[in-house]
Design goal:
The complex is a heterodimer of chains A (about 110) and B (about 850).
Chain A: E1 2-6, E2 16-19, E3 25-30, E4 36-40, E5 55-59, E6 62-66, E7 73-75, E8 91-92, E9 94-97, E10 100-103
Antiparallel strand pairs in A: 1-10, 2-3, 3-4, 4-8, 5-6, 6-7, 9-10
Chain B: E1 3-8, H1 12-24, E2 30-35, H2 51-54, E3 70-73, E4 78-82, E5 87-90, E6 95-97, E7 100-103, E8 107-109, E9 122-124, H3 128-142, E10 149-152, H4 156-167, E11 173-176, H5 188-199, E12 204-207, E13 211-217, E14 220-225, E15 230-233, E16 235-238, E17 242-244, H6 247-251, E18 262-264, E19 275-277, E20 282-284, H7 292-306, E21 320-324, E22 327-333, E23 343-349, E24 354-360, E25 367-373, H8 379-382, H9 394-398, E26 413-415, E27 420-421, H10 422-430, H11 437-444, H12 454-463, H13 480-490, H14 495-502, H15 511-521, H16 532-535, H17 538-541, E28 545-546, E29 552-554, H18 565-578, E30 581-584, E31 590-595, H19 599-609, E32 622-627, H20 630-633, H21 641-652, E33 661-666, E34 680-685, E35 688-693, E36 705-711, H22 713-730, H23 737-743, H24 747-755, H25 763-776, H26 780-785, H27 788-791, E37 810-813, E38 816-819, E39 831-832
Parallel strand pairs in B: 1-2, 1-7, 2-3, 7-19, 9-16, 10-11, 10-16, 11-12, 18-20, 32-33, 33-34
Antiparallel strand pairs in B: 4-5, 5-6, 8-17, 13-14, 14-15, 21-22, 22-25, 23-24, 24-25, 26-27, 28-29, 29-31, 30-31, 34-35, 35-36, 37-38, 37-39
Helix pairs in contact in B: 1-7, 13-15, 18-19, 22-25
The chains are: A mainly beta (about 110), B alpha/beta (about 850).
């Protein structure tokens, strides 16, 4: 697990990107309900590392982040793309210890 | 083998024939050669009086034939037909062989034999050139402070001509020989109301009389009417009917009618098997039709016949619905109750200014026809019922609200321009081919002609059970306009409060930016303040435009496109120092591409220090106000377009709206700034400014429509204030001004009523809202640079600020860096690492 940032650095529903030691990137979200999610930051449709900049909300009650490039929705808890079930982004394990967010490998 | 069709005349009907034949002739059997007498291709003569709005002949033009199989010769009249050898000859000396010949020579205005009818200042009303001539007379009279006019003829065409004169600032006398205005279409009761309504517009109506002479008195014309009245005039327009142009047919031995018109059969064939005649020059069963719809039907018949079909002229529906001088008039079926035993039922409401009559059969069971004046909204449901059983008490049919709900029979024609039945529309809706009005238009062409059936299309959609839901998304049942009013009236300032009280769930990428835009339009502080930052699309969240590789582009505001050399140098230096790709935009500014999130504040620090501010290229907001150089430099300019463009851009900068807003100002009618392609465009006139609204480029380009002319700068700005605020308050999400205007009940006329005539009494409120926006404007980028909290959000990685995103790389092209396409290996290109 890699420490990424303090929980207090996150604003609800506004993602941030973090760089992992292996060079990969995660998008970290704090939802309004208080849960933290970490997904791969690369949008599979455009290849751009921008998932952290998507709008967080829900689709049919399922919490999602919407890619800012072509607007596909990804389920925050599974990474599954709701617009194209064959596509998705990796989900990273995440933990909060002593107010620090830690992210593992998918 | 390809055969040759020669068409004589390129009016609306000739044009339709060419289009119809080209559409049906899929195997390319016919090559088409058209000879036109006029110097311009076919234009919409029905809308001729609107030419006065902008004097732009282009705006009347019909779609050109984009086709190698069609040859159009303008200004080259056919003068000879050699029927034996099947060759026509033209004024230019051309000899053109034909396999089939179609005469679509139209008609000429009928000028009664009044002494003095050829004096200068006397005109007919038929072509664009005629209107140019009328305009020249009117302007020369105005230069000596005079403006008196007369239209001879109070029928449909006469009132159109009167409308055109009103557009030139003249309140004409209208002289009609018959006992009432529009004697062919309306009866005495309807004509009486029509007269009262048009006299409110300062027209003077003389019925039951005609001009007995016109004499010149210096610069003036004196017209003596047969009832003894003498009128002192500057311009006289004859618009008293038409006569078929059959002289060519007559000279070369084709049979013509006793009272004119080339005799044709139901196939529109003349007495020569290879020659057809269509439109106003044709005489079918003793009738010459002066309306465009029967002409179009004839064109379709001939197109079918040329391809071996057996179509016949179906008979003409002479029903008419139009708005003349702002008054609705409709006439359909047996309007004058000529059928034996026909009964009339009339509701004449002098107070409301409406007149309605239905004509029914002697047993009161069948609808035969009717007349509507003042309010023709029932036309669409009544006309298709002609000849069918009455659906209820005839008084209730035309009575005020609460009347009988009409259901159309399935074979009733809904769109008479394109002959589309209710059944056809219901079929495409039920099969799922069309789910909304644009879909019906695409599938059936219904509603794409005069457009009067569009309300009926909406009604049919809802009858088919298609709810035209206006809910914004799954989280709100309200439309954007409803949400705007909720936010405005409740004073709610956060998305959370709004969705808690008026919606459900967490929100999404549709409602969050829409609400963010509403909050911004209502001046709720910086768009990245507090919760608002989480609502913004990525462009607004980083105040820059995200590009395909996740980098951003930066556009500083350059009001009106005017920039000093010093500021140009600053932009150049910033681009060079940050390694940005630069390109001039279509909006007269400069776009700097390839900036990372971390670089954005550094770039903007430099730009803001040099006096630049955000150009809002990233927002659904005012983008630019383009301008030409105007009177300052240009030899042709008549107003200072640059100063106005700058004033407007500075006034409306930062204004958030349902969609992006673009504008331009041209300093003269040459229109170098392309203002009519903008949401609001301004074109200088010698007397002030013309304001156009609802234009756009993009996927469906559209020219803006004139909404006010010759206004001074102060009035212009008031009108734009009202237009923009009304749009912001009432449009749907991502609805541009053009589709918004189309969606308004009453369209452009309604919009003009609201923002020019203040019909809703909200103009003061709209102006106050805009004044608040102008007062509260602050540069968004300066706001970020001055706030460490906002600034802290512009980092690539929360755990490694300043580290560039390793997935971004560039290569070089034409001396500048461009992105390496992600996931696409670049072969043989030097990569510029960064």
């Amino acid at each position: 697990m890699t420490p990424v940032c303090e929980l207090s650095a996150l604003r609800p529903d506004q993602g941030v990107a973090a760089l992992l030691p292996d060079g990969s990137q995660v998008a970290v979200f704090l939802t309004a309900a208080g849960t933290v999610h970490a997904l791969g930051n690369i949008d599979p449709f455009s290849g751009a590392a921008v998932m952290s900049r998507g709008i967080v909300g829900d689709r049919g009650g399922v919490p999602v982040v919407v890619s800012p490039v072509y607007k596909q929705a990804f389920e925050l808890s599974t990474g599954k793309c709701l617009d194209d079930p064959l596509t998705g982004v990796p989900v990273h394990p995440v933990a909060v210890r002593d107010g620090i967010i830690q992210v593992g490998s998918p | 083998m390809t055969r040759t069709l020669v068409v004589v005349g390129h009016g609306m009907v000739g044009h339709r024939l060419v289009e119809a034949l080209r559409e049906k002739d899929v195997t390319g059997q016919w090559r088409i050669v058209v000879f036109a007498e006029e110097t311009r291709p076919a234009y919409d003569r029905v809308a001729l009086s609107s030419y006065v709005d902008n004097w732009d002949a282009e705006s009347l033009s019909l779609a050109p034939h984009r086709d190698d199989a069609v040859e159009l010769h303008l200004n080259d009249q056919v003068v000879h037909i050699d029927r034996d050898n099947k060759v026509v000859r033209t004024t230019s000396g051309r000899a053109q062989p034909y396999d089939a010949l179609v005469l679509a020579t139209g008609s000429v205005p009928f000028v009664p034999p009044v002494p003095g009818r050829d004096l200068p200042g006397c005109h007919v009303y038929r072509t664009i050139d005629d209107l140019d001539g009328i305009r020249a007379t009117v302007e020369s009279a105005r230069s000596v402070g005079r403006h008196a006019g007369m239209v001879l003829g109070g029928g449909l065409l006469g009132l159109e001509a009167a409308n055109a004169l009103r557009g030139m600032g003249i309140s004409p006398h209208v002289v009609e020989l018959g006992p009432r205005l529009m004697p062919l279409q309306v009866d005495e009761g309807g004509g009486g109301l029509l007269k009262r309504l048009v006299e409110k517009l300062d027209l003077t109506v003389h019925t039951g009389t005609s001009a007995s002479s016109i004499e010149q008195d210096g610069e003036r014309l004196i017209a003596k009417l047969s009832n003894g009245v003498e009128l002192d005039l500057d311009v006289v327009v004859f618009s008293a009917g038409i006569r078929p142009r059959d002289e060519l047919a007559r000279s070369f031995g084709l049979t013509v009618g006793e009272r004119g018109g080339i005799i044709v059969d139901k196939a529109c064939r003349t007495s020569d098997q290879d020659i057809y005649a269509i439109g106003e020059c044709a005489n079918l069963d003793g009738m010459v039709y002066g309306l465009v719809a029967p002409g179009y039907s004839m064109a379709e018949v001939v197109a079918d016949r040329l391809l071996g079909g057996t179509a016949e002229f179906p008979g003409a529906d002479m029903s008419t619905k139009l708005k003349l001088l702002g008054v609705d008039v409709a006439s359909f079926g047996d309007a004058h109750a000529k059928q034996e035993g026909a009964l009339e039922v009339v509701v004449n409401d002098a107070v409301a200014g409406t007149y309605a009559k239905v004509v029914v059969s002697d047993d009161a069971k069948t609808l035969l026809g009717g007349i509507l004046v003042g309010d023709a909204s029932k036309y669409m449901s009544l006309r298709p019922l002609v000849g069918r059983p009455l659906p209820g008490d005839p008084v209730a049919l035309i009575g005020p609200e609460g009347g009988v709900e009409l259901t159309l029979p399935h074979d009733a024609q809904v769109c008479s321009c394109h002959a589309v039945t209710k059944q056809h529309i219901v079929d495409v809706v039920n099969s799922g081919e069309a789910v909304d009005v644009p879909g019906i238009k695409a599938c059936t062409k219904a509603g794409t002609g005069c457009g009067s059936c569009v309300p009926m299309l909406k009604k049919l959609l809802s009858e088919c059970g298609i709810e035209q839901s206006r809910a914004l998304c799954e989280h709100f049942d309200h439309s954007r306009a409803d949400l705007f009013e909720i936010v405005r009236s409740t004073g709610i300032t956060t998305f959370t409060e709004l969705i808690t009280r008026h919606g459900r769930g967490l929100g999404c990428d549709i409602c969050k930016p829409a609400v963010a835009s509403i909050l911004a339009s209502l001046d709720n502080g910086h768009v990245l303040e507090g919760e608002q930052a989480t609502l913004q699309d990525t462009n607004d969240r980083f105040l820059a435009n995200m590009q395909r590789n996740g980098t951003y582009s930066v556009v500083p505001r350059i009001p009106g496109g005017e920039i000093t050399p010093e500021k140009l140098i600053v932009i150049g230096e910033v681009a060079r120092d940050f390694g940005l790709y630069t390109k001039i935009t279509g909006g007269q500014r400069i776009d700097l591409f390839g900036a990372t999130v971390d670089q954005l504040p550094q770039i903007w620090k430099r730009l803001v220090d040099a006096g630049f501010e955000s150009g809002h290229a990233y927002g659904k907001a005012l983008r630019t106000v383009k301008s030409c150089v105007g009177t300052t430099w240009c030899r042709y300019g008549v107003q200072d377009s640059v100063s106005l463009a700058i004033e407007l851009e500075l006034r409306y900068r930062g204004l958030r709206s349902p969609h992006k807003l673009k504008s331009a100002v041209s300093g003269c009618a040459r229109e170098c700034a392309e203002a009519r392609g903008k949401d609001f465009g301004i074109i200088a006139t010698e007397n002030g400014w013309n304001l156009y609204v609802g234009g756009n480029g993009g996927f469906t380009p559209r020219h803006a429509d004139l909404i006010a002319s010759d206004v001074d700068t102060e009035t212009l700005i008031k009108l734009i204030d009202r237009f923009l605020m009304f749009y912001i308050r009432t449009a749907d999400r991502l609805q541009r001004t053009s589709t918004w205007i189309e969606s308004l009940e009453g369209g452009l006329d309604h919009l003009r009523d609201v923002i020019v005539n203040d019909s809703l009494g909200i103009c003061a409120d709209l102006e106050a809202a805009m004044a608040k926006h102008v007062d509260n404007y602050a540069d968004e980028w300066r706001g970020v640079l001055e706030d460490p909290e906002k600034l802290s959000r512009f980092t690539s990685f929360v755990n490694a600020p300043g580290t560039p995103d390793p997935t971004i790389s560039f290569r070089e092209e034409r001396g500048q860096k461009v992105p390496v396409l992600l996931g696409v290996p670049s072969v043989g290109q030097a990569e510029v690492s960064r």
